[in-house]
Write a structure and sequence with these properties.
Three copies of one chain form a homotrimer.
Chain A: H1 5-21, E1 24-28, H2 34-44, E2 47-50, H3 57-63, E3 66-70, H4 76-91, E4 96-99, H5 107-119, E5 124-128, H6 129-137, H7 158-172, E6 175-179, E7 183-186, E8 191-194, H8 207-221, H9 227-251, H10 256-269, H11 272-278, E9 281-283
Parallel strand pairs in A: 1-2, 1-3, 3-4, 4-5, 5-6
Antiparallel strand pairs in A: 6-7, 7-8, 8-9
Helix pairs in contact in A: 1-8, 1-9, 2-8, 2-10, 3-4, 4-5, 6-7, 8-9, 9-10
Chain lengths: 284, 284, 284
């Protein structure tokens, strides 16, 4: 089934709401890509706050519109902050996004995500195929660690991934997003496939983290009944920004560092016509 | 009153002293904009050290020329380090700069700033209008949280802000800097207004943090009798860098990511003639 | 003695192995330059993981090919993680690289490095002349703190530095790298001198940290019998990237911020012919 006009309307509305509402996004995230996350939230029209101390996460999350939890450089004390902020956000009906970065890389990350899933209801869980598979299987025996890539492992095919995502969505109540060559988004019933993107996105650090951060803005700005569309729009927009950035890099004979800059700039310049023309979204 | 020749001379001397002295600046700061802070200190001619462990902050601050405390990603253990480093800097007569990032966003930030103001004498406190107002009022009941903008709230007019800044300066003994469309700098008696800058500065993360970091270099290099002039120079120079950066961005049809880079580069290229020609400073 | 054909072959092999093996590099590093470190590891062909919590460093280091320990923003809890990860890496025969950033700046850094040298066997220790001298002398009485520069202090001459490096290498069993105008690399017997580089590298934050991170990739990809050559290749390649980046900056009339970007991009574009043509390596 092709993407129909009413769906296109959802995209337009999702983007417009971010620009109009300028949602505040609370991030408990890693110190590696944090600056890129802050800047991409600003670029898409949101406003970022980074705060992870147990003494303030409830206050911070209360003035925000959404919460993004990223376990990239996890440490013992911030786990408590993640749970506290997550519970508070649930109480306030704020959307909460989970990015289980490198979950397969240590028992500690595995344990933390299990704990988070027990204590907090997530609106969205976004990872690459390997990360989502670890959560799906619920153990850390995978050897398929794919810590730095948003590429979908070749050991999966799209239908397998869709099946896994749907089941995980039904089990957790979260929208599941698997990013890769083809991105998959599902709420357990509807499935969106997105074919935007460029392979160079896997060559720089942080495109996954940035997308999760941007989802914070999109979910924070959208109605609760339109979260799936908001998430889908953010995924397509990120991929499209990668396409634009790659064109710029080629044009200027540049490389990966400027690519990252162009991704963020493309997000900041993305308007409705660009998004509508460029979005490659299929709905099932 | 227009800016007179002797004032212009102060600007030249302030800039020259940074280049000649290459002051070491100790930063206890947030992990979001820390890299930009380090690079802008290098760009203006200083040398940055970031260190926040309680075991070393006294040693570090002792070999430095100034200390910058930024509460952007506050955590419980670094508060003790801030106080310890602040007291040591006071003992050594090093200038200490406070950036109360997002103070209105949590009771924890409010409490921390109160505590810091009790324990440490600050040479400079820099914030946007909302942040300075929270300190001025001494409570956290404000709903005017403006965590990501250096724009002056429209609910203030310049005269109100000047009055508030003067009183806060008299109460704390610190030079108060309110950055916004018009920047205000006062030591409780003299007031400088600066009209440099570009709206794009509010669209990237960290221009406020970078300015506070750069003040560390300017104050660390200047005589204690010339701190007000050093601070004023740094504010004008940052605004001017924003103007140059914006021109570059337009020229190259680029966006916010390259803007940030051009701000830092403009600082690194700023010489006396550029600064003298471009500075828009009024003295009262 | 000039650099001979078999040595050139070592360079080619070192670079090729990084591209082929795509080594995973575990970094316990500072929050100032961490993003640049991640991106330069990706740029040269490796894959970075940053993780510093005591609960996971053994797991993380076990799936990696090498470990880089950087004390730039040291804190009490990560010291234990450094030791734990270091011991595990030793057990697994993974190369471990130490970057003693600013060791002369505090007793705490001095103490930490002593402790690390007692508990962990390092394959490589990289610093500027001041930093290596502090380790060599084993005390913190130096006043020659050169925390932000990879420039070799003028108070040293190359022969003095070589003598010091050789002795320290024999004492620690580590390859010693002193970066500066001329880089020195020794395993206690053989000595390499490298004359690549550009003075602008000292004007941006993080070239030293980035080089240490990149050594993680080169050592992680090389045979244990070829570590010296792998390290030498990474040092020459970093210097050469500085030369290319400087040419780009001049060509585009740009400054230090774009220089950093061009350094990382030059690393990502560096191929065997470029490296062979540009490397300025002398062997003794």
């Amino acid at each position: 089934m092709d993407y129909k006009d009413d769906k296109l309307n959802d995209i337009v509305v999702s983007l417009r709401r971010v620009k109009e509402k300028a949602p505040l996004v609370h991030n408990i995230t890693n110190y590696v890509t944090v600056n890129d996350c802050a800047n991409i939230i600003l670029a898409c029209g949101g406003s970022p706050i980074m705060a992870d101390d147990l003494n303030e996460v409830e206050d911070i999350t209360s003035i925000c519109n959404s919460l993004v939890i990223n376990i990239g450089t996890l440490n013992e004390s911030t786990i408590l902050s993640m749970i506290k902020a997550g519970k508070k956000s649930n109480e306030l009906n704020h959307p909460v996004i989970l990015d289980p970065v490198g979950i397969g890389a240590s028992k500690f990350r595995m344990y933390t995500v299990s704990k988070l899933l027990e204590e907090v209801h997530f609106s969205v869980i976004r990872g690459n195929a390997s990360e989502i598979k670890v959560i799906y299987k619920g153990d850390d025996t995978t050897t398929d660690i794919d810590i730095n890539s948003d590429k979908q492992s070749t050991s999966y095919n799209t239908n397998e991934l869709i099946g896994m995502a749907k089941q995980l969505s039904q089990r957790t109540g979260a929208i599941i997003v698997i990013t890769g060559e083809i991105d998959i988004i599902t709420n357990g019933e509807k499935v969106y496939k997105i074919k935007n993107g460029n392979p160079m996105m896997g060559k720089i650090k942080g495109t996954g983290c940035m997308l999760s951060a941007m989802m914070g803005a999109f979910c924070g700005a959208s109605k609760s009944s339109k979260q799936l569309e908001a998430v889908t729009t953010s995924v397509s927009m990120m991929g499209l920004a990668g396409e634009y950035a790659y064109a710029k890099v080629l044009e200027n004979q540049r490389g990966m560092s400027s690519f990252r800059m162009h991704v963020i700039e493309s997000i900041s310049k993305m308007d409705e016509p660009m998004l509508l023309t460029g979005a490659k979204i299929e709905c099932y």
